[in-house]
């Protein structure tokens, strides 16, 4: 079975990219949420000490959680 490292959540107004990564300097597993607002790339990185925990969170991110993250950032642009 192939490992899934990226997900795209389709919201009514935006696409949210969720990806797995690794920070070699801090030796942390990363979960990265990326989207664009008015041609500005917004990236949120969350670090985990444990790859299994990062992967668990990756699988559990819902459309509703992605929408809440987007809404919080949109408040800064208004």
Top keywords for this entry?
78 residues; alpha+beta; Double Stranded RNA Binding Domain; four-stranded antiparallel sheet; 2 helices
Brief characterization of the structure:
The protein is α+β, with helices and mostly antiparallel strands and 78 residues long. The protein is 32% helix and 42% strand.
Query: Unreliable segments (pLDDT under 50, ≥5 consecutive)?
Result: none
Biggest β-sheet, characterized? Answer: 4 strands, antiparallel
The helix tally amounts to 2
Number of domains: 1
User: Strands of the biggest beta sheet: in what spatial order?
Assistant: 1-2-3-4
- Tell me the overall shape: globular
CATH fold-level assignment: Double Stranded RNA Binding Domain
User: What is the element string, with H for helices and E for strands?
Assistant: EEEEHH
| Helix percentage | 25-40%
How far the N terminus sits from the C terminus, by CA atoms, comes to 44 Å
Structural class: alpha+beta
Rg (C-alpha, Å): 13 Å
CATH C-level class: Alpha Beta
Oligomer kind:
single chain
- Named CATH architecture: 2-Layer Sandwich
Q: How would you state the average pLDDT, rounded?
A: 94
């Amino acid at each position: 079975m192939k490992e899934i490292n990226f997900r795209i959540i389709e919201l009514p107004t935006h696409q949210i990219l969720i990806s797995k990564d690794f920070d070699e300097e801090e030796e942390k597993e990363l979960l990265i949420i990326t989207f664009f607002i008015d041609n500005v790339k917004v990236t949120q990185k969350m670090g985990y000490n444990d790859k299994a925990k990062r992967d668990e969170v990756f699988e559990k991110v819902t459309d509703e959680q992605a929408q809440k993250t987007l809404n919080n950032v949109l408040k800064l642009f208004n």
